[in-house]
Write a structure and sequence with these properties.
By secondary structure, the protein is of the alpha/beta class. It has 9 helices and 7 strands, in the order βαβαβαβαβαβααβαα. Belongs to the short-chain dehydrogenases/reductases (SDR) family.
Amino acid sequence: MTQCVLITGGASGLGAALVKQYAQRGATICIADLHAERAKKVIAENAQQATDVFFQPCDITSQADVEELLQVITERWGKLDILINNAGVATGGALAYEDIEQWEWVLNINLLGMVRMTRAFAPLLAKQSQSWLINIASQAGITPIPYMASYNASKAAVASFSETMHLELAKDGIHVSVVCPSFFATNLDESMRSKQPGVHELVKKLLSRSDINADDVANIIVKQAEAGDFMILSHKVGKKALFMKRFMPTNSYMRMMKKKLQRFGPKK
């Protein structure tokens, strides 16, 4: 039976790579995004392989938009097999540069947007005998680095929310995964907000260092979610970092990280 897949932020970056992965599996896909022109390009690239792929404009900070998306999906498909909460933004800067408005902005999109989507679509997912909820967090949420406090906190909250949903929604046949990729080449820096000079350049440098791309990450996500994994780590360096944090004494780990990151930061 054809799977129906809803991907927020599916018009670019990792979202577009996920559209490609599910199109290759012959899925029916909805791209929920703010960027219509980008979505049209992704649709054109995947229309031949997907059973169907269409765009629905949606701002995940708007409850009205989320409810309209739910109505569209319900009327068009009558079911939902997979929801991927991928839409998100980035922030950066030292604490003194990150005002409360910036904190509220990133938390409203990265965390509360995901909460809105999950609350709206969980009942539809539960109608299936088996369904998947895949939340895109970040390595930054489990092994944070300096100069990204609000982003790190938003993604840590996503990881915690996902763990809670993994336990809470299991009785409804919904398998929940959380994805924590390290930096890789994407357009995350386009949406990034920072008032500190040098932060955008720092993030671009980190994004360019990865030895895997968005297609690689998307392939890992699909395979591991289908296998029933909860936490999906796409990067070897991320797996190593989490292993050290989990198994080293906390004080030793923090001393090691402080020493390692002494010279890390934006150039003035």
